[in-house]
Amino acid sequence: MKVVLLERVEKLGSIGDVVTVKPGFARNYLLPQEKALRATEANLARFEREREILEKRNAERAAAARKEGEHLDGASFTLIRQASESGQLYGSVSTRDIAEAASDENFTVTRGMVDLHVAIKTLGLHEVRLVLHPEVDVTVTINIARTPEEAERQAKGEDVIASAAEEDRALAEAQAAQLFENSADGEAALAEERGDVADAADEAESDEDEAKA
Questions:
Q1: What is the DSSP string of 134-164?
Q2: What is the spatial distance between Cα 47 and Cα 85, in angstroms, rounded to a whole number?
Q3: What integer best gives the mean pLDDT of the chain?
Q4: 54 with 103: CB under 8 angstroms?
Q5: The pLDDT value given to residue 57
Q6: Using CB atoms within 10 A as the burial measure, which of 30, 137, 185, 192 is most buried?
Q7: Rg (Cα) of the chain, in Å, rounded?
Q8: How far apart are CA 4 and CA 26, in angstroms?
């Protein structure tokens, strides 16, 4: 199906472009969202009559989105989630979660603005693109951690999962060393005890020999 775009559509074209798309994409997204019109003679003529108005309106909306969302560019948002020791979340972080975290009283981020093709399922820092307008996008960082303290460490650049693994490894090595030391001390004590027993036996035998003499 051929349509004329009423605004820029990523990977498709800019305002005024006539493009061919799948019928389902046009019917389910472009047409109901008023991002395009069927490229009929009547609609093309209508577009040319209204082109200046449409371009002006689009520029105004882009400028408003750029101004209202400028505080988002480079911003970081923390989400506290439960996760395994390996960093796998018990669940996932979705577009809804990110939209809610990035929204405030002055600017509402909708799910449709969050450019996330696959839900986030691990702890760590994740860069996510927000499309505030077809011509305006920003990048935010989603800091997913198990605790606020862990989130703060991640924000400073620490890999908390690797750190936890290193701590576990060091603890295991320390426990093994302690076990070895305790075992060595036990063997030494046993050897000493055996030596005392042997000395006592030798002394008893010597006394017996003297008595016989």
A1: TTEEEEEEEEEESSHHHHHHHHTT--HHHHH
A2: 57
A3: 87
A4: no
A5: 92
A6: 30
A7: 36
A8: 11
